[in-house]
Automatic annotation (TrEMBL):
Gene3D superfamilies: 3.40.50.2300, Winged helix-like DNA-binding domain superfamily/Winged helix DNA-binding domain. InterPro entries: CheY-like_superfamily, OmpR/PhoB-type_DNA-bd, Sig_transdc_resp-reg_C-effctor, Sig_transdc_resp-reg_receiver, WalR-like, WH-like_DNA-bd_sf. Residues 6-123 form the Response regulatory domain. This is Response regulator. Keywords: DNA-binding, Phosphoprotein, Transcription, Transcription regulation, Two-component regulatory system. SUPFAM superfamilies: C-terminal effector domain of the bipartite response regulators, CheY-like. The modification 4-aspartylphosphate is found at D57. It comes from Parachitinimonas caeni. The keyword rRNA processing does not apply.
Length: 242
């Protein structure tokens, strides 16, 4: 039985589909690739097969948001990682796709083969790591936060991805790397590119807490230290949220 990952490319433009397939096969020789060109065939395949990664266009034929429906179907079935490749403007659609739990978004005509392969392989590795964690971790280990120190992305909490904007990810990483210690507001200013004030930091921390509580309503590991900053504590009190 083949141990190579299996990938689905869902793209209605045949030349683009062929190009993406070529890039995928260049990235991982021997990889198994299925190509689908419309929503109906794609949804049937998603229900039938368990892919390791799906590369997906948003607009398929005359259906402007067919890809959105497919992502929703994937999330309901098994949560396969999705890399969206679309002509829709990234400034608008990247945040929309992130809210739908797509793993990344590339806008057509703004990236080349190297960019695609880097993103593709990063998602494939992260998905493999998540699968290992889900099958090998003990219940206690699953409660721990997992952050890739090189990419500082795709934080995993209890085996599930935490959906966070990039700045919030950086703040989370700063807190978690120094868990048990107070990280001052001034130190957190160093990880944000704009809005270097206490109110803005508090808003980012609130975003982080909300994202965790979507997965774990009892999450309470980030403590507010009045006048100083915040602290990640694995033993934070459960009788009050700060």
């Amino acid at each position: 039985m083949s141990t190579e990952p299996r990938v689905a490319i869902i793209e209605d433009d045949i030349p683009t589909s062929k190009q993406l397939r070529g890039w995928v096969e260049a990235a991982r020789p021997g990889i198994r690739v299925d190509q689908w060109f419309n929503r109906d065939d794609a949804e049937a395949a998603i229900a039938r097969e368990r892919y390791d990664l799906v590369v997906l266009d948003i607009e398929l034929g005359r259906e402007r948001h067919a890809g959105v429906a497919i992502i929703n179907a994937i999330n309901k079935l098994h949560g396969t990682p999705v890399l969206v490749v679309s002509a829709m403007p990234a400034t608008i659609y990247r945040s929309i796709m992130k809210a739908l739990d797509a793993w990344d978004y590339l806008q057509k005509t703004t990236f080349g083969e190297a960019d695609f392969i880097d993103t593709f392989l990063e998602i494939l590795r992260a998905a493999k790591d998540r699968k290992v964690e889900a099958t090998e971790s003990t219940p206690a280990e699953k409660r721990e936060l997992s952050i890739d120190p090189l990419r500082q992305s795709t934080p995993i909490w209890r085996g599930q991805r935490v959906n966070l904007p990039l700045t919030a990810q950086r703040i989370l990483d700063a807190l978690y790397q120094r868990r048990g210690e107070v990280v001052s507001y001034e130190e957190l200013y160093g990880v944000v590119k704009s809005g270097r004030n206490r109110d803005n930091i508090r808003k980012h921390v609130s975003t982080i807490r909300d994202a965790f509580r979507e997965l774990d309503p009892d999450f309470d590991c980030i403590e507010n230290i009045p006048m100083r900053g915040f602290r990640w504590s694995d033993t934070a009190p459960s009788n009050g949220r700060h």
